[in-house]
Amino acid sequence: MYKLKKHTGHRTVSLILILSCIFILGLMPACQPSPQAQTPPASTPQAAAPPAPPSNPPPVQTVTPGAATKWVADGVISAGEYQGANTYGDFTIKWSNDNDYVYIGMKAKTAGWVAVGFGPETLMKNADIIIGFVKDGNSTIADTLSTGDFGPHPPDTQLGGTDDIRASAGKFDNGYTTIEFKRKLDTGDKFDKPLSKGINKIIWAYSGEPVFTVKHTMHGSGEIELK
Questions:
Q1: What is the rounded distance in angstroms from the CA atom of residue 86 to the CA atom of residue 96?
Q2: d(Cα 132, Cα 175) in Å, to the nearest integer?
Q3: What pLDDT score does 81 carry?
Q4: Is residue 167 within 8 Å of 175, Cβ to Cβ?
Q5: What's the confidence (pLDDT) of residue 68?
Q6: What confidence tens digit (pLDDT) does each residue in 156-205 have?
Q7: If you average pLDDT over residues 100-129, what whole number do you get?
Q8: Do the beta carbons of residue 66 and residue 80 sit within 8 Å?
Q9: What are the distances in angstroms from CA 178 to CA 75, 78, 134, 175?
Q10: Of 223, 110, 117, 112, the residue nearest 176 (C-alpha)
Q11: Which domains does the chain possess?
Q12: How far apart are CA 116 and CA 216, in angstroms?
């Protein structure tokens, strides 16, 4: 009886141990650490696609100097009216030409006369001077010749020549006097200087009063280049 009881106790203990192992093994998957979430790799930023070019891009606009506006003797220097321009302080001269005529616009900060002289020899001598002023809304323009280094410059008509200004106008506005005129490149008058394509020397001046006999307050020399 003692041996049988001992044998039975051993089997009971063994059974308990087996069941305990099975139970522990069943719990083991639950005890394993859960796999850590994987962070997806950061995506490489892509460069933005360039905008598609317009199907009909606007044309590049260009304006040829002197070709945009037709010359008009109105005392107003309009944009594109002249081919060339030079500024000397408060005096500006603009010009255009064709095969027969030269077109001049001159403007100065003054209420007096403004003038340009073509082809001076020594100082003012033998310069073909076009001079003009505006008074009470009316313009007066004269075709003159300087007979000495410092004048005088009487009208060509007093010297036996002709007045060769073919069109002219003047305007005083906002403190500036503007004179425009047209004449032939070569007038045929011996008291005028013929103008040619290329560089032409000039003198310029303006006074403080709209009277031809009043001396200039500013003067200088320069050039214009005809095409």
A1: 12
A2: 16
A3: 96
A4: no
A5: 65
A6: 999 999 999 999 999 999 999 999 999 999 999 999 999 999 999 999 99
A7: 96
A8: yes
A9: 6, 11, 8, 10
A10: 110
A11: 84-226 (2.60.40.1210)
A12: 12
Q: pLDDT by residue (tens digit) across 50-63?
A: 344 333 333 332 23
Q: Are strands 114-118 and 198-206 parallel, antiparallel or unpaired?
A: antiparallel
Distance CA 66, CA 77 (A): 12
Closest CA to 226 of 201, 202, 195, 197: 197
Half-sphere exposure of 5 (CA within 13 A, CB side): 2
Query: What is the model's pTM?
Result: 0.70
Higher pLDDT: 127 or 66? It is: 127
Q: What is the 3-state secondary structure (H, E, C) of the chain?
A: CHHHHHHHHHHHHHHHHHHHHHHHHHHHHHHCCCCCCCCCCCCCCCCCCCCCCCCCCCCCCCCCCCCCCCCCCCCCCCCCCCCEEEEECCEEEEEEECCCEEEEEEEECCCCCEEEEECCCCCCCCCEEEEEEEECCEEEEEEEECCCECECCCEHHHHCCCCCCCEEEEEEECCEEEEEEEEECCCCCCCCCCCCCEEEEEEEEECCCCCCCCCCCEEEEEEEEEC
